[in-house]
Design a protein that fits this description.
With 472 residues, this protein is an alpha/beta fold. The chain is built from 18 helices and 14 strands. Helix 15 links the parallel strand 10 and strand 11. The chain binds nicotinamide-adenine-dinucleotide.
Length: 472
């Protein structure tokens, strides 16, 4: 009896009319979390996320989500099956949707014209063509992916080409969340940016999207601009953030030559309210799927418009990042008597930053490849990124993957700290020192640890932008 009743309630719930149907194409690091937050905050909207990757969708529908983000799982579980759905049936969902977010990836081209710099827009174009082929009713198409400025024009041209009568209104709504704090960033955004076309239908579409965000974002945080400003703002925002990291890293190099301490310099400089303290932490360099690609795309765009000097200016941000990674490896090599052959190095952290499993373009990957070229043996420790590390690194005899840092350091000559996970701060370094080969080295690529305490234990300590503390 009870079961029948529950069954009927569920049936009624599933037939419930939703106010609007939102679809997101692309169930990745952006599509999954953003749509989860929208579903949480807007129970009257049906939110569906589709992807061509069946394993990804299966994972979103399972207990083991495909990505790690603080607070994500609870939020998925609270909405999944109610107003949040994950599916591979792209065509059916396109047809039913009122608002379609496009959150497919936009990597850097690896072939042909602009290889290594321009944005590879094939996934965006395929998505647009699919929408055009399937849609029978008007839709709002929202660019969530990061795109080159004026991409909306291309999108509109594809969507409205041929005999097709269906009209689409394109909005730009770039995502500013950062991995590791994605949920927090989306629930409490600094701003939501909506770019729209200045026409009656453009304004209606803009308002429709604003109504979604107004469910939890205060009105004053919604910024509306023209489409091109919105598209460009996302690239510029990433370029400025990365530029600050490269700026302070360049100063770290100077500190190492002059006995100035980059942490002290950054603190003094960042206290100036015109500058501020964020993104002024020197380290082994930035990583992640966005910074490098977005700066290169920006530089390529500048070059396309004949702005060669501007392009070179932004490219230098990336060049400095590569330089910083290279400097870290060189420091390890030089400190350890110019040979790493057969020496075990415990690499603390592989994700591109803490609190994420994402390893795309992580400095750790480059560092590992350099160290392997020197014939070092590696033991890689990371709380969430080991599966990704395994797929990225060569299936080589010289690499171990370890969850337990105390096992990873057994017989190691050095520790290279590459990701500032909190768990590395509070380890028993006395015990670690006693179980390592001597002389024991620590290279703190994120200035996370207490260097004086480590030196007192007996380690030779090398940090970024600080004088080394060596017993040798
Ligand atoms: N990751 C971030 O921190 C971040 C932050 C802001 C903006 N962005 C931007 O958001 C976009 C997506 O980034 P991401 O990190 O989520 O990428 P991702 O690679 O994690 O996800 C993209 C997904 O799109 C799917 N896909 C590709 N083509 C498809 C198609 N035709 N139909 C259906 N699905 C398709 C892929 O299978 C993949 O699962 C990029 O433009 C990126 O620059 C990323």
């Amino acid at each position: 009896m009870q079961n029948n009743f529950e069954h009927s309630v569920k049936k009624i719930m599933s037939l419930k009319e939703f106010k609007k149907k939102i679809l997101c194409i692309g169930a990745g690091y952006v599509g999954g979390p953003t749509m989860t937050v929208i579903a949480n905050k807007c129970p009257e909207y049906k939110v569906t996320v589709v992807d061509i990757s069946k394993p990804r969708i299966d994972a979103w529908n399972s207990e083991e989500l495909p990505i790690y983000e603080i607070g994500l799982k609870e939020r998925v579980l609270s909405s999944r099956g109610k107003n949040l759905f994950f599916s591979t049936d792209v065509d059916k969902e396109i047809e039913e949707a009122d608002i379609i977010f496009v959150a497919v990836h936009t990597p850097t081209k690896t072939f042909g014209e602009g290889a290594g710099r321009a944005a590879d827009l094939q996934f965006i174009e395929k998505t647009a063509r699919r929408i055009k082929a399937v849609a029978r009713t008007p839709k709002i198409v929202v660019e969530k992916s990061t795109l080159p400025v004026r991409a909306a024009e291309t999108l509109a041209t594809i969507l409205h080409s041929g005999e097709h009568e269906v009209r689409f209104e394109i909005l730009s709504n770039p995502e500013f969340m950062a991995e590791g704090t994605a949920i927090q960033d989306m629930e409490h955004p600094d701003r939501i940016l909506i770019g729209y076309n200045e026409s009656e239908s453009g304004r209606l579409a803009r308002d429709e999207l604003m109504n979604v965000y107004l469910n939890w974002v205060p009105r004053e945080k919604l910024i509306t601009t023209n489409l091109w400003s919105s598209e460009l703002s996302k690239l510029v925002s990433n370029a400025f953030l990365a530029q600050r990291i490269s700026s302070i890293n360049s100063i770290a190099a100077l500190c190492e030559e002059t006995e100035a301490d980059v942490v002290e310099v950054a603190n003094a400089v960042g206290k100036d309210s015109r500058i501020g303290s964020k993104f002024l932490r020197a380290g082994v360099g930035f990583g992640g799927s966005c910074f490098r690609k977005d700066i290169l795309h920006l530089a390529y765009l500048c070059e396309y418009y004949g702005l060669i000097e501007v392009a070179r200016f932004w490219e230098q941000v990336v060049t400095l990042n590569d330089y910083q990674i290279g400097r870290f490896v060189k420091q390890i090599l030089q400190a350890m008597f110019n040979t790493l052959v057969g020496k075990k190095i415990a690499l603390f952290g592989y994700a591109f930053k803490p609190d994420t499993s994402d390893t795309r373009d992580a400095p750790a990957g480059y560092i590992c490849h350099h160290l392997l070229k020197e014939k070092a043996k590696l033991s890689i420790v990371d709380p969430y990124a080991l599966d990704n590390a395994r797929t990225e690194l060569p299936g080589d005899e010289g690499i171990e993957f370890e969850k337990d840092p105390y096992k990873a350091i057994q017989g190691a000559h050095a520790i290279a700290l590459v990701t500032e996970w909190d768990c590395f701060r509070d380890l028993d370094y006395k015990r670690i020192f006693s179980e390592m080969e001597k002389p024991a080295f620590i290279f703190d690529g994120r200035n996370l640890l207490n260097h004086q305490a480590l030196f007192d234990i007996g380690f030779n300590v090398y940090a970024v932008g600080k004088p080394p503390r060596s017993h040798l």
